[in-house]
Amino acid sequence: MKKLFVAAALVFGGFATQAATSIDFNDVAIVVNQEEFQEIAVEEVPEAVTAALEKDYAGATINKAYVNEAKEYKLEVTIGEEAAVLYANENGEWIQK
Prior knowledge:
By secondary structure, this protein is of the alpha+beta class. It has a domain at 38-95: Nuclear Transport Factor 2, Chain: A. The protein contains two helices and five strands, in the order αβαββββ. The protein has helices at residues 2-20, 47-56; strands at 38-40, 61-67, 72-79, 82-89, 94-95. Strands 1-2-3-4-5 form a five-stranded antiparallel sheet, with no helix packed on it. β2 (61-67) and β3 (72-79) form a beta hairpin. It is rod-shaped. It starts with a helix and ends with a strand. The mean pLDDT is 84.
């Protein structure tokens, strides 16, 4: 009879330790690398970029201009009545972003 109580105590003790076991979750961090564009005056946009804009988007007007460390230009433009954001490198070549 004494063995029965000891066996029961071991079984219930085993259940208690299993229930008390913590579950570790792997935290996932999502890192978004944003490019730092600094606003510049429209007059500071290189001639190659403005020439490409006039050639490929006739009638477009630059509202705001930005540049990053890689000399890539972000242009907020108005084409007709639509607003658009265009990206170009310093040579006037369009970049898909």
